[in-house]
Description:
Layout: H1 16-46, H2 54-62, E1 68-73, H3 79-94, E2 97-100, H4 105-111, E3 118-122, H5 133-141, H6 143-149, H7 160-169, E4 172-178, H8 179-182, H9 185-188, E5 197-199, H10 209-219, H11 222-227, H12 240-246, H13 252-260, H14 262-276, H15 278-289, H16 297-307
Parallel strand pairs: 1-4, 1-5, 2-3, 3-4
Amino acid sequence: MTEPAEDRPLKRTIPPDLQTQVEEIQKKIPRTTAHHGQEIREWEQDQTTFLETRATRHILESLPSHNCIVVTGSSGCGKSSNIHQAALHLRDRFGYEIIPVLTGPTDIMNYYNENKKQVFVVDDICGKETINTHTLLTWRDYSEKMEKIFKVADKDVASKNDEMVSKVSSPKLLLSCRLHIYKEAQFQRITLFTKKECNLLSPELCLLEAERMHMLQRYLSDDIITKLNLKQVTENVDYFPLLCKLSKDKTSEEVKKLFKSPLGSIKRNIHNIINENRDQFCALTLTILFGGEFNTEWLTKMDLKSTS
């Protein structure tokens, strides 16, 4: 016996083109999640050599009262390392989910979940050598939505208990930005980004001499430090953390060249990449052409198209 029409379950059909789009999105979700995991694993590996400095402690102490923190400085001074370690701190101590922002504010809109504790991490938010106007405008277009997501509870209204909960549960946005870009008038118009700056080159947060020595010891043996008299290079060089990182696993002679003539050493490394590893050279070229914003997911999308 045929059921009356009103008793039959409604069959919902999805147009073929929309179904295709849904399937494509579903295919990309695991890859994106895996890419996040890969990024975070690299940060975890850096924990073995990362040195907590007074700047690091200041950033961690600022997390309860600020939902958006911008860490500024020059190239190689440790901006990215500090926000990465702050994100890991939030994850390990307070159970936050880490979301590395790869493509811009749309990542935040896509992954934001008000029922989860989340920290979003953005490296070199608006470019490196020069400000990326297109990226800046995109962030500015989303500024009102970002303000709503990363707003801080009014301390005069919230009770002490509520305030304590908000310290460990509100969404966080951690940014690294070159100092000259941060000072641009266009950048300063995005008020969310100017509420809390941590300048790693400022007298209050720059590396102390003792911190520089401890950092050297994380990467090099005491014998090499003494033999090369590296105490002399612990003077105020902005990119000192980068020099330490580059010195890892190098011979005594290579370390000497690196610290005595860092630019020459970096040029030689690039020359070796060009001559010996074409894949790395290709990756380096793409990074330069795209201003440090080349997204490896584009390669995955290209692979999907070529195999379909």
